[in-house]
Amino acid sequence: MKSDSLAIKQRYDRIAPYFDGFQAIMEGFFYRRWRKKLWTKVNGIHILEIGVGTGKNFDFYPVDAQITAIDFSPAMLKQAEHKKIRKAVTVTLNLMDVQSLCYADNTFDVVIASFVFCSVASPQKGLKELYRVCRPGGQILLLEQVVSSKPLFAKVMNIINPVMRVVMGANINRNTIKIIKSCGFSFVRIDADSSDIFKLIEAGK
Ligand SMILES: C[S@@+](CC[C@H](N)C(=O)[O-])C[C@H]1O[C@@H](n2cnc3c(N)ncnc32)[C@H](O)[C@@H]1O
């Protein structure tokens, strides 16, 4: 594993036991509502969740779906394993790097991720893997925190980014929409309810 990916993985390994606690306020006031909206857009049975983390999306998994979820941090995956048992969720959890997925081309109806591509060392590489494993006509659904379109706010995000990267493992200053648009998807749509920095994105293959 390349050293930048290794450093990110180690950060998530370190914060995994505290991750849900760190995010509890934002989760309650904000993220949960967006997760619900993200998962109501799912249209398909074979689903791959990328960067499952501690399993915060488990509550929104469609009951009749066949879901596989991956993460490259063993400690985050361990939290997800505990939550899977506690909540009796049916999901196959695999330790894997999104930049090099071990699935055949065109495998999944839906590939979905929340708040992941701000952390992935090479988001382009990861997004191209999402494209590869999604079947033609399938859906890529993403919830992402991106850099603000307001120059002053973007400047502040750039300044505090190094701290956020160390504390939360995430880059808050990425232009992820631009990156997604460069990865060959047949369309990229931003949900109209998206805010300046939180985007619900649907892309197609
Ligand atoms: C900010 S957390 C979000 C977790 C979860 N999706 C959520 O909504 O709470 C980012 C997650 O992406 C994972 N991640 C980062 N880079 C990855 C990579 N290259 N391959 C797989 N997982 C990765 C991290 O380990 C972490 O669990």
Structure description:
The protein starts with a helix and ends with a strand. Helix 1 packs across helix 6. A 7-stranded mixed beta sheet has the order 3-2-1-4-5-7-6. The protein is globular, with a radius of gyration of 16 Å. The protein is built from 7 helices and 7 strands, in the order H-H-H-E-E-H-E-E-H-E-H-H-E-E. By secondary structure, the protein is an alpha/beta fold. The model has no long low-confidence stretch (mean pLDDT 95). It binds S-adenosylmethionine (SAM). S-adenosylmethionine (SAM) is lined by residues 5, 8, 12, 51-53, 56, 70-73, 76, 97-99, 114-116, 119-120, 170. S-adenosylmethionine binds at residues 5, 8, 12, 51-53, 56, 70-73, 76, 97-99, 114-116, 119-120, 170.
Write the H/E string, N to C.
HHHEEHEEHEHHEE
The radius of gyration computed from the alpha-carbon positions, rounded to a whole number of angstroms, is 16 Å
Q: CATH first level: which class?
A: Alpha Beta
Based on secondary structure, the structural category is alpha/beta
- Bound ions, cofactors and other small molecules, one mention each: S-adenosylmethionine
Identify the strand order in the major beta sheet. 3-2-1-4-5-7-6
CATH domain topology: Rossmann fold
**Low-confidence sequence ranges:** none
Helix content: 40-55%
If you average the pLDDT, what whole number results? 95
Shape: globular
Write the CATH homologous superfamily: Vaccinia Virus protein VP39
Strand residues, percent:
15-25%
So, CATH architecture? 3-Layer(aba) Sandwich
The number of E-state strands comes to: 7
- Counted by DSSP, the helix tally is 7
Distance between the termini: 28 Å
State the assembly state of the protein chains. Answer: single chain
